Amino acid sequence: MTRARPQPARRRRPAWAAAVGGMAAAFAGLAVAELAAALVRPEAAPLTAVGGAVVDRTPAAVKEWAIRAFGTADKLVLTLGTVALLAVLAAGAGILAVRRPRAGCALAAAVGVLGAVAALSRPGAGWKDALPSLAGGVVAAGVLYLLASALRRPRPAGGRAGGTWPLDRRAFGRLLAATVAASAAAGYAGRRLGAHGAAGATASRADLVLPSPAVPAPPVPAGAALRVPGLGPFLTPNRDFYRVDTALVVPRVDAGTWRLSIHGDGVTRPLTLTLPELLARPLTEHDITLCCVSNEVGGPYVGNARWLGVRLADLLREAGVRPPSQGGPADQLVARSVDGMTIGTPVEAVMDGRAALLAVGMNGEPLPFTHGFPVRMVVPGLYGYVSACKWLRELRLTTFEAYDAYWVRRSWAQQAPVKTQSRIDTPRSFAQQAAGRVAVAGVAWAQHRGIARVEVRVDGGPWREARLGDADGVDTWRQWVWPWEATPGQHTLEVRATDGRGEVQPERRTGTLPDGATGWHSVTVRVRA
Predict the structure, then answer these.
(1) Are 442 and 426 spatial neighbours (Cβ–Cβ below 8 Å)?
(2) Is the pTM of this model over 0.85?
(3) Cβ atoms of 85 and 54 closer than 8 Å
(4) 231 and 425 in contact (C-beta within 8 Å)?
(5) Residue 158: pLDDT above 50?
(6) Which three-class secondary structure state does DSSP give residue 494?
(7) 54: Cβ–Cβ under 8 A, 6 or more apart, which residues?
(8) Which of 32, 61, 434, 460 is deepest in the core (most CB within 10 A)?
(9) pLDDT by residue (tens digit) across 475-485?
């Protein structure tokens, strides 16, 4: 009797190798999509398109939480989260492809289709915007099939051959490394090509010389900046000015190709302006404090700058627009940016005499790209989400009844005047202080109304009036300082402001939704003996 010779045990490829292969395939797809997006437009890149679609569909409360938790890094966190989710899907597709090649590759291709759908859903998208994600999906599926085939076990003797390319670990490693290297090269080429495409915009900003204002702003009063340690400058440097928007990729608009159209209800003379035509008009310089509606009590999303621009009311009158108070049919001015953002502003506010500007300059230089180059809106007295459209390309006159702008469709109020706020900047909360005189200082703002008084109290005691810095008009914040004789122990400091109309900042704390936060800012400090 002959005994059958034992067969050697088949060596299983570890699951981690299949998962790594899936992620390498996803990397290849993303790299090719990045290269293709450089030929279409940056907003068509899959990560940007999917991230933008997520932002658009995220509930307002979740967005506010993200801003509170991550600040200006919220976009980076979203991008990293999207990459992490993609990595998990890619790893799963890799493991699936080893056992079921068609199913795994179909999953990879489906992710590309999802990216294409997201790209087509973006404002201003055309059919070409789907191409980068579709190309990336095809490449990812093809590379996944190649890598998965290399990991699949050979067929038993006598079985049907074909479709399997079993490699040892070193050979698979070389194939994986070659895939990653080729993908990195494609991604680098896409980045370089994208940078080359943005070079014209960068050069146009560098070459732009702003005309002198026909109406210059007066010098900032010498006493406006109190120069207290821990208190920031009166004018916020451009690099430190807050940025809150939905753009995952900052638009880089070429000043030479920029156009602005003004049309809509009540416009008897529609306008289309180039940047030189806009700059040929009389320019006004004005100091204005901007505040984001997402700014919580005591929050950082407020800044003060010297803006240069054309008075928006003059342009609207040139187009034949009349405010509602004079019988005009439109009560809402909808501003649209190059990335599709829409912001609705009351026509009456724009034309009531305040310094509402189409701004081209910020603190003595052309607008930074992150703050709206080449042209943005600035309207004192209104929160940014109803007034401060960046990367502006269109102004359309309509009514609030007929159209809801981007943020209004996401539970925010149609109209949102800035609420009176005050903030303690020094000492910081939970700071350790030595006993004795301590300078308690901060800022207060109520744009278009001004600040008349700031008061501070300790541990719920009587209110003490602080010393105000000199006023630089009613459209900027005012710095304040109060000398405190600090005694040992733990103390709570509170601040409140009174605006130029005599209205005291309300005590009751409310959140930012739907039209801005209210309440007194407080800090707790420990004083050493």
Answers:
(1) yes
(2) yes
(3) no
(4) yes
(5) no
(6) strand
(7) 78, 82
(8) 32
(9) 999 999 999 99
